């Protein structure tokens, strides 16, 4: 699919989608998608989604790459942005790279950013400020590196 302003479907999309402003699907998206502003799926993004401003889907299986924001609930793969990576009460299994990693669920893997936050950590955080809510009191907020069991 190619659209000057945008392309979308009410259900699932498989293949390649390029939209000047955005690409979206009410269901799942499988393949590679590039939106001038954003990419969004109503269920699962499986593959790669790239948006100059943002990418969002409840479930990401692959890579969500956004200029300012990436949002997901469950990730097996990577969230990457210059801005804010937000995990909504699910699980990240993989990598998150952002200025601010806000992982409000379980992180299983690596987060790299200026500020990293995880509600529950089974992996490593690397950044200026690393906050792990379920760590013991002396290890909840650490500079440079934080880890969980």
Word description of this protein:
The radius of gyration is 16 Å and the shape is elongated. By secondary structure, it is an all-beta fold. Helix content is 0%, strand content 77%. It has strands at 2-3, 6-9, 13-19, 22-25, 29-35, 38-41, 44-51, 54-66, 69-81, 84-97, 100-121, 124-132, 141-147.
Question: How are the SSEs ordered, and which strands pair?
Answer:
Layout: E1 2-3, E2 6-9, E3 13-19, E4 22-25, E5 29-35, E6 38-41, E7 44-51, E8 54-66, E9 69-81, E10 84-97, E11 100-121, E12 124-132, E13 141-147
Parallel strand pairs: 1-3, 2-4, 3-5, 4-6, 5-7, 6-8, 7-8, 8-9, 9-10, 10-11, 11-12
Antiparallel strand pairs: 12-13
Could you give a quick summary of the protein structure above?
0% of the residues lie in helices and 77% in strands.
What labels would you give this structure?
mainly beta; 149 residues; 77% strand; 13-stranded mixed beta sheet; 13 strands
Proportion of residues in helical segments? under 10%
Total of DSSP H or I helical runs spanning 4+ residues: 0
Shape: elongated
Please outline the major beta sheet: 13 strands, mixed
The portion of residues forming beta strands comes to: over 45%
Cα Rg = 16 Å
- Taking pLDDT < 50 over at least 5 consecutive residues as the criterion, the unreliable ranges are none
* N-to-C CA distance: 44 Å
Strands, total number: 13
Based on secondary structure, the structural category is mainly beta
Q: List SSEs in N-to-C order.
A: EEEEEEEEEEEEE
pLDDT average, as an integer?
97
């Amino acid at each position: 699919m190619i659209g000057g302003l945008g392309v979308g479907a009410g259900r699932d999309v498989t293949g390649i989608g390029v939209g000047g402003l955005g690409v979206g699907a009410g269901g799942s998206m499988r393949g590679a998608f590039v939106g001038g502003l954003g990419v969004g799926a109503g269920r699962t993004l499986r593959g790669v989604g790239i948006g100059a401003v943002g990418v969002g889907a409840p479930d990401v299986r692959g890579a969500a790459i956004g200029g300012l924001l990436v949002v997901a609930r469950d990730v097996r793969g990577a969230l990457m942005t210059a801005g804010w990576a937000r995990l909504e009460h699910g699980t990240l299994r993989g990598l998150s790279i952002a200025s601010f990693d806000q992982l409000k669920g379980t992180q299983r893997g690596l987060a790299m950013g200026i500020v990293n936050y995880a509600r529950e950590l089974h992996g490593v955080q690397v950044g200026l400020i690393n906050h792990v809510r379920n760590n013991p009191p002396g290890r909840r907020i650490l500079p440079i590196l934080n880890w969980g069991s």
